[in-house]
Structure formats: C-alpha cells, structure tokens
Records
---
Amino acid sequence: MVEGKTYYPDYDVLDSIEEWDPVTADAVLKRLGPFPALKFLTADEEQKLRVITKHLVYDHRDEIFDWVIHFIDQRLDDEKGEYQRSPDAPPEKILIREGLQAIDKLAEKLYNEDFLSLEVEEQFEILASLQVGKAASIPEWSTIPQQDLFDKLLILTVAPYYSHPTIWSEIGYGGPAHPRGYYRIELGLADPWEAQRKDATDKEEENGE
C-alpha cells in the first residue's frame, strides 16, 4: 500500500482494545515497542533489511519498521524449523545472512558501492532483478538462489507489516474478533464497530474542493 493512504482516516483499531481478551491485547500492543536489542541480526544487516523492507511495501515509517525488524530478528533467532522452503534454497538463516552479503557484492559489481550507498532507483533495480532471477552474475548465486532470496525477504516483510495496528487501521481491519464476534455476516453489511469507508469524494467535500 502507499504510505499513509487510507479510506478510513478517522478509524483507529486500538479504540476497540477493551473488547479483546487480555492476552490478545497484550500481544498487539507489544508491536508498538519498545523492542529489545537484536539477537540475530548485526547492525549492518539491520540497516540493509530496514531499507529493503521499506522498499518492498513502499512505506518508510520507522515506527512500523521497528516492529518489522524485530519480527524478522526473532524469526531468524528462533530454532524452530521453517514451514516450507525451496529444495534449492538453504535454511532461511543462511539465505538471509548470505543473501544480504550477496546483494552488497552485486551492488559493488554494478555500481562500485555497497547497497546502502546506492541511490533509491539503483536499489530498486537490484531488487527487481532478484525478483525475476536475472541479477548480474556473481559467484554467490550458486548457493543463494535469487528468487528464493527475494521471496523470503518479501514474506518476512509482509507478515509483520500487515500485523501492525497502524496498518490495520489504514486498511480498515477491525482486529481480533474474539470474544466480541461478528453478527452482521450478510454480504455487504458491517457491524457498527467496524471501519466505515470514506471515499475520495467525501474527503474532497470535507476539504471544500
């Protein structure tokens, strides 16, 4: 989504927090921070991931990406196995760590600079080439499949991004339904507590346009 663009400008999902059970409310509020020190990611990896994840969802609000980075760090530090991965791809800990190094190598080959020193357009070009598996040849691609790297970066970004309360509010998501539940389940109907869409024409009228 485009940063801050919403059809629900007056909606805040956290206004309903008293309707959630305490465990759920606590879990959601923790996504607002503050967050503990990183356990898996190095400072350099954190900087690269912060830039990349922002690019992937066209959003640059650090208060949201503090949560995204924390989520990724927790995931990579966890000893639990992955739910799935390509048979050609290494475990995600290796895929991300060595993949970020490979992105730097690619940037150096193409632009004689590390990834973080590139212009935004150049960073986008690198990510776009990984997405289709057509990045310039470097030895690292023999062990780090380009498209698997891009897909993993995207998955690790989208999951926490769309679980942040600010994004819930912006897309009109009402948050956990338990224990309140829904009762207007017919097509096209909404419960009174759900977000009410405000179309562009409504905004223009409010602004006197």
---
Amino acid sequence: MKKKIAIIMGGYSSEYEISLKSGNVVYQYLDSQKFEVYRIHIFQNKWVYLDINDEEHAINKADFSVHIGTRKIQFDCVFNAIHGSPGEDGFMQAYFELLNIPQTSCNYYQAALTFNKRDLLSVLRPYGIRSAASYYLNLGDAINEDEIIEKVGLPCFVKANKAGSSFGITKVYKKSELKTAIGRAYQEDDEIIIEAFLDGIEVSVGVLKYKGETKVLPITEIVTENDFFDYEAKYEGKSKEITPARISNKQKIKVTKIAKRAYDILKMTGYSRSEFIFVNDEPYMLEMNTTPGLTEQSILPQQAAVAGISLKELFESAIEEALNKKS
C-alpha cells in the first residue's frame, strides 16, 4: 500500500513564498507510483489541503488529518518544506512528535537551536568551531553605538537573530547607519545579532542523512554581484553559486570536517546547509539552515546533483530516513 505523504509548505514568516516554491517542487518530483502525495498549506489563518483542482480542505489540527468527502486521510509521514516559522524553529517538529507522525527534518530541539543564530554559535564555540565577533541586542535594550563598534568594528552586519533568506540584514559601514539597520532587523525579530565583517571566500556546505549515513555534499562557493549574499543575490539572480567550490584541498578538508562535526555534535537528522567564510584558510561559521531551499535552483539540490543524487532520490531518501527513524 502506498504511503500517504503530507508536504507542508508556506509558514508564518517572510519566507512563505519561497517555501511554497520548495514544497511544489517536492510535490512534482515524488513518485506517485510509490506515494500518495498531499500539498498542505500552513498559514496563520488556515491549515488546508490543496487538491488537484486547488480546492481547499481544512486540516483537523487535533490529529493532522483531513476529510475528503466521507474519507478521512491520516498521513504516514510529513515532508517539511517550511522555511522559517513554524517549520524551521521547532514548533511543527514538536507538534508531530506529540502526534507520533514521522517528519523529514531534524527534531524540535535541534530546529529551535539552529534557528537561533546566537544560541547555535554559542553552543558550537566550545567545540572549536569559529564564528565572527558578535554583539547582541534585544528589543528595548539601550543602543550604545560606540560599544557596538568597539566590539565588532566597521563594516559590520546587523541581523535579525531568528530569520532566514537574509530578511532583516544590513551591512553597516558608518556609525550613523547603525540605528536604521537595527530598526530594520527588529521588523523581523525582537532579537538581533551584530557581527564583525569577515573578508574571505563564502561557501555553503550541505550535510544530510542519506541512505542511513551522514553525507557531506559537494561544497558551493557563493560569489555575489551585491555587497553581500542578500535576498536579491539569493533569489533574483544577483549571484553565482559555483559547485564544486574553487577552494584549495586544504580548505575543502577543513570545512567538510567542521560541517560534519557540527551536524554530529548537534545530533542532527534530515537536511542541513551551513554557511562559512574562510579567513586565512580557517572556516568561520555564519549559520545552519535545517529546511533549506528545495527548488531546482536552490543550493542543496545543486550540490546533490553534482554528487549524482537526483531530486527524486534526494526527496525519497528523506522520507525513508523519517520512516526508519520511527520504526
């Protein structure tokens, strides 16, 4: 009998449109001969199943089921394609854990931890994983511009602590620009991380569970036309993503080892994509994404393709891993 797979997409954050694209790519590539696949839109005001005619059927949140006519559908596995809240910050993971429904991303604690840039980097730092000098602010804190500049220097990056796709991020060159950048970041989150600028090669490293093993995918080099790898660069063609990255063998060995170590330290499962910048051949971690983009143009699928893994294989493996984790 075919497994019933719910692909959750959308979400509550600024990343919802990107998530819808990812979810629809997963829907397109999953084998209908193996699975009954259902598109589930998760929004603040509604959770609905979209049928082939794009008609909406309400999801029963009590057990994550849906009625189609007289038939009640309950799912064997959930494919998580939500970027940002509530799919990348632990809420959906905890919900499915309570319902005992397998899902493809990491567990709720790991999701919450990795979604919080400040906490992630603080946890990994004692293990020797380097990160930029940083300064933290919470909404309502006094803003001492001189203290910030003394700690991180100029230029620096002002980032929303819990946001993705470069929403709420500004590169600041002058003291006079700090308060505007901080205000922009607060539009995305009530916590901020301000980081020193690291001048070097930026790379993205995909790590995942694939056929029962932890696998590091070929590394991607990020070359942006913009001042940094912002939303335009990521999604509007203002960057080059070169896989495999044009880095030395020494750099490749180092960043591969560190990305895998971080994955293992955190007891991760599912997909991850970690960002690093090399400074004097040393990789400094910026962040880890646990529900990365899954369109044909996204970085993780590009890396999988270079590794000889098709999108069909990539997505089906995630479902198999989730089902095996439950059994």
